[in-house]
Design brief:
Elements (H helix, E strand, L loop, with lengths): L25 H39 L4 H20 L9 H27 L5 H22 L4 H31 L4 H24 L16 H31 L1
């Protein structure tokens, strides 16, 4: 038969932030919770940790060499992605305003893709174009709309977030992929950009899959988002980038020393 569960909340109506309620045998619930913890807690936590380490590393490089503007934008992008992951892994909002809390998830996503767009342009030494300025203005307008709706407690902010903010983020990611692809076509010897292209393409595909999963259009049900499983590959690509820059700097310094000693 049916079972009705009554929950007494002392929070303002609509701001309790209640999640799913499960009633079953304790052993079954324990096994289910173990699986869910891995999907919703463990994987996102390690993704958050690795992404934060990368953000700090690239920020340190940029602070030491301010002319490396691309690394500054990459550090901001990684910091925004870490914030996006950290906010999303919390089932219970960190403060008593669930609407604003969930709004921050969309804002950090938009910040991530915009910084990713600026990173790609700075890395490839391309001039700012009209398209990029329009994308920036559009992302800002979407962010302002979602924030305003969440502040006035209008539930439509969820629709704007899911149906406007996320597609806008995916579109921006596709621009980054196209930008890297054009550079690789014009400069086939650029292995670093080729790996960035592969990473950006994977992020775009996984992002589209996770968006469709949130809309319940793809499954399997309960599988969770896949974005966290891309982090090891991102760590390898960005770690190799830092290592390559470091080795090149050492080679240049050694060559200069040999020239001075000659």
């Amino acid at each position: 038969g049916s079972l009705e569960v009554l929950v007494l909340s002392v929070s303002q109506q609509g701001r309790a932030g209640l999640g799913q309620v499960l009633v079953a045998d304790s052993n079954q619930l324990a096994q289910y919770k173990s699986v869910r913890n891995h999907i919703e807690k463990t994987a996102p936590f390690y993704s958050l940790l690795v992404t934060s380490i990368l953000a700090v590393a690239f920020a340190a490089v940029w602070l030491a060499r301010p002319r490396e503007v691309a690394f500054g934008w990459l550090a901001l992008a990684l910091a925004a992605r870490a914030s996006f992951t950290g906010l999303g892994m919390q089932q219970t909002p960190l403060f008593d305003w669930p609407a604003l809390y969930r709004c921050l998830i969309y804002l950090t996503l938009l910040a991530f893709v915009y910084c990713e767009l600026r990173f790609s342009r700075a890395l490839l030494l391309q001039p700012a174009g009209v398209t990029e300025r329009r994308i920036g203005a559009t992302l800002l307008a979407i962010a302002a709309t979602v924030l305003t709706l969440s502040l006035v407690a209008a539930q439509s902010y969820l629709l704007v977030g899911v149906l406007v903010a996320v597609p806008a983020a995916l579109f921006t990611g596709s621009i980054v992929v196209i930008r890297f692809a054009r550079h690789c076509r014009a400069h086939p010897q650029s292995h670093e950009v080729r790996w960035l292209l592969i990473l950006a393409g994977i992020l775009l595909l996984i992002g589209a899959r996770d968006w469709l999963y949130d809309l319940s259009l793809v499954g399997p049900a309960g599988s969770g988002r896949y974005q966290h499983y891309v982090t090891p590959f991102a760590f390898a690509v960005f770690g190799a980038m830092l290592l390559r820059r470091h080795v090149n700097a050492l080679d240049t310094a050694e060559a200069m020393n040999r020239h001075l000693e000659a």
